[in-house]
């Protein structure tokens, strides 16, 4: 009788878990459906934005669908050339590859997004990009580089008061300290992140922080409290329909229960359910971890063949991940994007210098033009002033010489382009300008000199 009651309770629990997951999945799907309903046939920035959102929201539900909509967004954006949408699309691709366990591709797309967002001066998004790149380094156990990128992200987020970005980066920093065995520092960062997420109402972030804190508690042998944190996180992920989070929670809870000597059919059923989710999402890293946990449970239960089967699956997947994510490849990619970043900064510096030079030249041209106009006014008024003839002639000569040289300076870039550096062509252009200016000079010189000389000569009779 007692056995039947236990079996009935287990069956009911499994049904409740599966039912709640189904409801939550429908909620996530309803959000995607509402985004799909907003799509139109017009290929514009709004369509790119919606397709990116759909792809991102499919990330933890169906990775194939996520990639499909990400590619659609890329295709539409290739026609309208929207740089902001291109950067967002690269970031979505990075997230999808990261979820799928392909860290090399994730690294490439996160860096592509970073370069464009820096060019567009989107500081808030740049902070997110740095944090994402830090994630790749932390997965590769390149902790110094991870901390370097997280610190850059946190610096920008604090400057802009971007709470969401701050919470994510604090979580990531906690992960690095956790992996290095600095558990107290890790817990401090997780708690700070959780507090920010609570104030923002980011239940997804709160659930992730609960898992992080539980992991520290488990390592510090506070197992019961750790289990409570895992259970709380699992309930949140179920409510959100966050499949990846559900599978992750189940894996962590199972590991802890195995460690505590709790072994039941329900644990194995939950692990197989989590494995199904990981396979459906094509989440390689999570699938690998689940294979290990399942093999451990079979070892504890004494099922030698099944233990060997799943341990082999674990090692097979681990080897494929290592070959796909070698540190050397990541470092080569890093060098590539460092070179791209240097090139971007050089272009930006050259552009700024060119703009500064253009402004300086414009100011100089304006000053010269004003001075020539001033000389011209004096030249026209010279006939009414009592000045000597030679001063009048010099004034006319200097005014027209400056006008001639000023015109040559202005047309010089055009003349260079037109002549392609051929001196004979430039000489002909200069001669043509001289032929145009010289007659004008003669006309004005005669008029001004006539007035000046006439005034001077008339005055001589009345000495």
Compact description:
With 463 residues, this protein is mostly helical. The protein has 18 helices and no strands.
Question: Can you describe this structure?
Answer:
With 463 residues, this protein is mainly α. It has helices at residues 2-37, 45-58, 63-80, 83-100, 103-119, 123-139, 143-160, 163-179, 183-200, 203-219, 223-240, 243-259, 265-281, 284-301, 304-324, 327-381, 389-419, 423-460. It folds into 2 domains: 29-313 and 327-343, Tetratricopeptide repeat domain (Serine Threonine Protein Phosphatase 5, Tetratricopeptide repeat), CATH 1.25.40; 354-460. The protein has 18 helices and no strands. The radius of gyration is 37 Å and the shape is elongated.
Can you lay out the helices and strands and say which pair or pack?
Blueprint: H1 2-37, H2 45-58, H3 63-80, H4 83-100, H5 103-119, H6 123-139, H7 143-160, H8 163-179, H9 183-200, H10 203-219, H11 223-240, H12 243-259, H13 265-281, H14 284-301, H15 304-324, H16 327-381, H17 389-419, H18 423-460
Helix pairs in contact: 1-2, 1-11, 2-3, 2-4, 3-4, 4-5, 5-6, 5-16, 6-7, 6-8, 7-8, 8-9, 8-10, 9-10, 10-11, 10-12, 11-12, 12-13, 12-14, 13-14, 14-15, 16-17, 17-18
CATH architectural type of the largest domain: Alpha Horseshoe
**Unreliable residue stretches:** 1-27, 455-463
Counting H and I runs of at least 4 residues, what is the number of helices?
18
Main sheet properties: none
Keywords, separated by commas or semicolons:
Serine Threonine Protein Phosphatase 5, Tetratricopeptide repeat, disordered C terminus, about 475 residues, mainly alpha, elongated
